[in-house]
């Protein structure tokens, strides 16, 4: 945020940090982060996390200058989630995935409209994005998964530190304790976050119909308009009061009661959702590797090819481009999914089995 840091100080890609990431222990199936982060319910907080990330001035400036989120929001989010999930679920390869994500950020730098220099690999900026993913878990579990005990929040905090080490970034911005983190979060919300153009773009986002969806555009627009509106309402409820005031959002006690009731409905409804739908594919295959149903070195799940960035952007270093799968691989995946959805499945972590015995 206009700190005047040199580019070298803002981009910690030294051998020391890489070795630190490689030496760190990745999270495993016994962690609460595994239980919650890959759950489909985190998707209900899409507007919340997009907006609160962009409120950080450096991050928002990078999005305004370099992102194509408004051009293809569904594809952009869907393909980004795969490597982000991988830093949690890729086991011994998690540090490698963290390095992959860092590589996308080297060229995201510039000067914002207020003359402040920014770089996506500024340690404070990079950690803020990670902190929002940690809070995504806290908020999702609190509102839509039955809640968390104070001990579980402390465990998730410790795990988020372990998770962050997978990036090989400077640990300087990371609070030391859960109590310190709460002060950090409150200070950011009250004093540093701002309502900028990138934030307003999230609030006002329209989901363009992807070319591969066989549906009339007016029907698509009517389908997604209330869904985005509902996410804005959820975001308003999950924002700290200081952020609601900055954004000019209204939230009443009645809204809070309604959100809590909706959260309970979602919690109970998801008891009937199979793991093949409830879990992100990167998370589902991680549980299967942990159980021994897949080899430990099985290829990591990539985003579907149709989620790749536009052809005119594929040569840019900031984009993750899913590797193309062979026809045999795609056929095998289809058969596997079909049998899974017809009932040949076992519960994953948190669905009736103890840790280490997840499907």
Automatic annotation (TrEMBL):
Residues 1-24 are annotated as: Disordered. Residues 9-24 have a biased composition (Low complexity). GO terms for molecular function: oxidoreductase activity. Pfam families: MPAB_Lcp_cat. It comes from the Bacteria. Residues 34-266 form the ER-bound oxygenase mpaB/mpaB'/Rubber oxygenase catalytic domain. Coiled coil: none annotated. This is ER-bound oxygenase mpaB/mpaB'/Rubber oxygenase catalytic domain-containing protein. It comes from Mycolicibacterium pulveris.
């Amino acid at each position: 945020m206009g700190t005047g840091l040199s580019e070298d100080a803002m981009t910690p890609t030294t051998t020391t940090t890489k070795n630190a990431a490689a030496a760190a222990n990745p999270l495993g199936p016994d962690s609460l982060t595994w239980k919650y982060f890959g759950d489909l319910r985190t998707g209900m907080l899409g507007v919340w996390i997009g907006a609160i990330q962009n409120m950080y001035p450096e991050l928002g400036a990078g999005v305004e200058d370099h992102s194509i989120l408004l051009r293809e929001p569904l594809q952009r989010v869907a393909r980004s989630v795969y490597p982000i999930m991988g830093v949690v679920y890729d086991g011994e390869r998690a540090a490698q995935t963290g390095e992959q994500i860092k590589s996308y950020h080297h060229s995201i730098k510039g000067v914002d409209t207020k003359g402040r220099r920014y770089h996506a690999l500024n340690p404070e900026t990079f950690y803020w994005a990670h902190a929002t993913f940690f809070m995504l878990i806290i908020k999702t579990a609190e509102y839509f998964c039955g809640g968390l005990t104070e001990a579980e929040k402390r465990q998730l905090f410790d795990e988020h530190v372990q998770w962050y080490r997978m990036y090989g970034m400077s640990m300087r911005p990371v609070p030391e304790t859960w109590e310190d983190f709460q002060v950090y979060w409150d200070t950011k919300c009250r004093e540093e976050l701002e309502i900028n153009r990138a934030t307003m773009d999230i609030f006002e986002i329209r989901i363009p119909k992807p070319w591969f969806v066989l549906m009339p555009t007016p029907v698509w627009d009517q389908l997604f308009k209330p869904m985005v509106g509902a996410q804005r309402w959820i975001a308003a409820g999950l924002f700290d009061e200081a952020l609601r005031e900055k954004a000019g959002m209204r939230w009443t006690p009645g809204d809070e009661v309604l959100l809590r009731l909706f959260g309970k409905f979602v919690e109970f409804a998801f008891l009937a959702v199979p793991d093949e739908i409830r879990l992100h594919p990167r998370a589902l295959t991680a549980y299967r590797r942990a159980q021994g149903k897949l080899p430990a070195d099985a290829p990591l799940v990539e985003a579907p090819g149709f989620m790749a960035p536009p052809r005119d952007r594929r040569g840019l270093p900031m984009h993750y481009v899913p590797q193309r799968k062979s026809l045999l691989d795609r056929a095998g995946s289809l058969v596997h999914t079909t049998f899974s959805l017809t009932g040949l499945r076992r519960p994953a972590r948190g669905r009736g089995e103890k840790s280490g015995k997840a499907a």
